């Protein structure tokens, strides 16, 4: 495997974790501590559920823009193009944001899909419920690995009926050739960390995803359509009092092929207090973060730019 040596951080390649192996628990903890990013195989999700959703997504993104726009704007759910959020971030991407808990958005799809909207909904639901189950299993293995008494300390937040989780389909069309040289490394999705607890990403075999372990250094992640890539989100970084790292990542457009990715973002209920788990700190004074609820964090993140250090606002200023 290609190896990178980047200033202080040596990156031996994306940690590959076989979920069927007993040693995966400690490997998961290490990957979350070292990088906040890893790839899982033997995840137990049959290919059929993945390819079915992929073909629905391809169908959706191939519709004329006027049709797709009928399912937008993303307020917060629906179709969006180029604009990411409301604070000036743009990228070479179009996307569909879906709520994982209620079915309320689907009337938007009925108008363009007709009866196929129902099928689309079923395929998304099936996929999301499987990926969520896998995310919960990973979170439980992590809790075990951290010797947290409550094995479901993290996963119960995703299992909660009120869990504020989101599902996102991103489509990065091929870069336009008229941009010539400058189309190299055109930004598809600007650098950011994911604010939730955990993100589960699956993409087709087109590259573009990069992670950053030290500022300004980007590592390209080879795509793998048969595996899932997992990101630690900001909330999990806080719940582990900084022991797990919320990984900075972005997508660059770099080929003549389009990239399609689907991401499940597992988040807590809005009213949930995000704070280090008691067993991971000696006392409240040990917490690196001020107290906040997921609602407060989301509100603050919505007001910020993608690249901002959104957690910075909630860090305790070290007393000197
Ligand atoms: C995201 C993200 C990566 C991708 O949507 O938060 O990081 O490959 N996406 O689309
Ligand atoms: Ni992301």
UniProtKB/TrEMBL annotation:
The lineage of its organism: Eukaryota, Viridiplantae, Streptophyta, Embryophyta, Tracheophyta. Residues 162-268 form the Fe2OG dioxygenase domain. It comes from the Eukaryota. Keywords: Iron, Metal-binding, Oxidoreductase. InterPro entries: DIOX_N, IPNS-like_FE2OG_OXY, IPNS-like_sf, Iron_ascorbate_oxido_reductase, Oxoglu/Fe-dep_dioxygenase_dom. This is Fe2OG dioxygenase domain-containing protein. It comes from Penstemon davidsonii. Belongs to the iron/ascorbate-dependent oxidoreductase family. It holds the Pfam family 2OG-FeII_Oxy.
